[in-house]
Specification:
Length: 101
């Protein structure tokens, strides 16, 4: 089962993980090894070509999918920009996500 949460509901992100407005958290360390990608740093999957783009974290029985679902003028451009920056931030903290796009 996967829970979808908007990227725009993130209240904080640091080297330990992500906290959302609803109180849910993604703790990066606990996402390692819960996949089939044989990497000690892979914590999820990303798909820039999906509609909406997303990053799904391997949090156990119920994964958390962060969706880039901003609406309005220039929504695609803004969502792609935010998606790219989110990916850079994850890498900055020493983790990776598997590219499905």
């Amino acid at each position: 089962m996967t829970e979808c949460i908007s990227y725009y509901d993130i209240i904080s992100m640091n080297e330990n993980g992500i906290t959302f407005k609803n109180g849910k958290q993604v703790i990066f360390f606990y996402c390692i090894g819960r996949n089939n990608y044989y990497s000690e740093k892979c914590i999820g999957e990303r798909n820039a070509l999906a509609d909406p783009p997303y990053v799904e974290f391997f949090t156990g029985n119920s994964n958390i999918r962060v969706v880039f679902d901003k609406t309005g003028m220039l929504e695609k451009k803004n969502n792609q920009r935010d998606f790219a920056q989110f990916h850079i931030d994850i890498q900055k903290y020493g983790y990776t996500t598997f590219n499905l796009s």
